[in-house]
Amino acid sequence: MSSHRSRNMALLAAFLGWMFDGFEMGLFPLIGPDALKDLLVNTVAPEDMAKTVSSWFTVIIATFLVGAATGGVFFGWLGDRIGRVRAMTFSIFTYAIFTGLCGFATEAWQIALLRFVASLGMGGEWALGVALVNELWTKGSRAWVAGAIGAAANIGYLLVALLSLGMSAFIGTITGWSTALGASDDLNKYLFDHGAWRFLMISGAFPAILIFLIRIFVPESDKWEEEKKAGSTSFWSTPDLLGVLFGATVALFMIYAWSPMGFDATWATIVTITGFGMVIWGFLLPVRRYLHRAASAGTMTHDTRITIRKNLLIGATLAGIALLGTWGAAQHAPKWSGSLNLHGTSPVEVKAYTQLATAFGACVITLLTPVLADILNRRLTYLLCCILAMASSITFFQTNTEIGTWFFISAFLMGGLTASFYGFFPLYLPELFPTAVRATGQGFCFNVGRIIAAVGGLQFANLEKGFGGAVNAYTILCSVYIVGMVLVWFAPETKGKKLV
């Protein structure tokens, strides 16, 4: 296979993998409430249903974020040890199969557990796909490639919004096909009642066919192969993964502390502060020990070791700020739109159109952001992303009281500008790490930010109560970008530097 075709196949695999990630991440907010009502109907009183569904929904979203963070570190480690392509097949298999198994759940806790395992693969797929594509594509093409990967998940969100608009017709058509194929009424009810959540979850196993595409057509990274021949991959050790398990356990306990079943705000804060340090220690254990072994063997200098450690922390913080802004505020736009003056429009339609606007904006601007980073530089681009993301978010929440033209224009801008980081990070994070630790390093940076987002997102109810309403709470969460505006000046500038 030619080098050009190999690179294209790698990009296609990474693009499709991340697009299906985005589709499945966007799918649960659409079908999750129906699924939880179906599973809880026999155990929860009608007057308590709304509150119980909301509590479970919040917990499942938070555990998903923790799982994605853990998967980013675990599968990144696996990609640095056994190769990007092999590890990517395992990550896609994990998120596809366990998403499909959600369709057979009989209890709410089973959804939470299966989504957690599925999210391990989702978090890992990003780190592996970005590492593989960056190592196969030439430097001159990397900006557009980074933009394509950044846009992929948002195309998945766009597809979910389109599905939402045509859900009734879609369910009717699929039910008709099922009946024509001889399915019984009981089977049709099982699959297609309650918003067809079981059928849609089972359909989440579809991306597993990507495994065959990857194994047959996608080549391994030449840079990783060189590291393997040099013996660098032998410094990874499986027992070090106990640190990742420890970090994931502590992170889940932090989520529990803020859940309705957890502690009061004082104790939850103490758990979070101490727990986050433990999470970082556990997630970093495999790479810290790798660096120690490599330095002891004389294959890595002391200065390189220190630089990698600094970049792990600075990269994770920059990503955490972006993810908190997105998950804490921008991702709530469709839900929040239902509380405005709808002028007689269906709340379901308004939510779907809002997601269409934000996702379309994200698709456009994530493509352009890495190109801008090549024109300016990495620091200025991140600074500009923070300024525009904060301004567009605050404008969206503070200036809209009804659904109209301005609402959708501002939703487009907010969706795009808050998502700009997801075109930036596929370009920037690979530049912070050498090939030997690239997948682990960028997997840690991008996905540990999800834990920050998970804990931060759980503060919304407290912020809403403390600052007098949802609009002010969203505004406070959006202000996190100010931290990024300052912190980016302590990050390394990598424009013009080759991947090593």
List keywords for this structure.
about 500 residues; globular
- DSSP strand tally: 0
| Residue runs with pLDDT of under 50 for 5 or more positions | none
> Which percent band covers the strand fraction?
under 5%
Oligomer: single chain
**The biggest beta sheet, please?**
none
Order of helices and strands: HHHHHHHHHHHHHHHHHHHHH
Q: Compute the number of helices.
A: 21
Shape: globular
Mean pLDDT, to the nearest integer, reads 86
Helix proportion range: over 70%
Rounded to the nearest angstrom, the distance between the terminal CA atoms is 25 Å
Radius of gyration: 22 Å
Structural class: mainly alpha
Outline the secondary-structure elements.
Blueprint: H1 3-40, H2 49-82, H3 84-101, H4 108-136, H5 142-165, H6 167-180, H7 185-203, H8 210-217, H9 222-230, H10 241-258, H11 265-296, H12 302-328, H13 333-337, H14 347-375, H15 378-399, H16 405-419, H17 421-428, H18 438-457, H19 460-467, H20 470-478, H21 481-487
Helix pairs in contact: 1-2, 1-4, 1-5, 1-7, 1-8, 2-3, 2-4, 2-10, 2-18, 3-4, 3-8, 4-18, 5-14, 5-17, 6-7, 10-11, 11-18, 12-18, 12-21, 14-15, 14-16, 14-17, 15-16, 15-20, 15-21, 19-20
How does this model look, in words?
By secondary structure, this protein is an all-alpha fold. Helices cover 79% and strands 0% of the residues. The protein has 21 helices and no strands. It has helices at residues 3-40, 49-82, 84-101, 108-136, 142-165, 167-180, 185-203, 210-217, 222-230, 241-258, 265-296, 302-328, 333-337, 347-375, 378-399, 405-419, 421-428, 438-457, 460-467, 470-478, 481-487. It starts with a helix and ends in a 13-residue tail after the last helix. The model has no long low-confidence stretch (mean pLDDT 86).
